């Protein structure tokens, strides 16, 4: 079904004002709202569909899905 979708993995979020954003450079650290080891959120077109963890396969990063959100739960979030 050749329907294009956007898939993103969210490690965490941070709210930062533009002044501080413009001061970021290589080596800067941005604090996120999650602790190390928490699962990533797997989003499709901005909708949470699963949780996962980072894995390395043949020197490339990947995501191992650990929990897929049920279709019923996804529909509830749309309303």
Automatic annotation (TrEMBL):
Q: Which UniProt keywords apply?
A: Bacterial flagellum, Cell membrane, Chemotaxis, Flagellar rotation, Membrane
The protein's matches in SUPFAM superfamilies, at most eight in alphabetical order, are given as: Surface presentation of antigens (SPOA)
Kindly list the places in or outside the cell where this protein is found, as annotated in its UniProt entry.
Cell membrane; Bacterial flagellum basal body
One Pfam entry name: FliMN_C
Is the keyword Ribosomal protein assigned to this protein?
A: no
Q: Which PANTHER family match?
A: FLAGELLAR MOTOR SWITCH PROTEIN FLIN (PTHR43484:SF1), PTHR43484
> Protein name, please?
Flagellar motor switch protein FliN
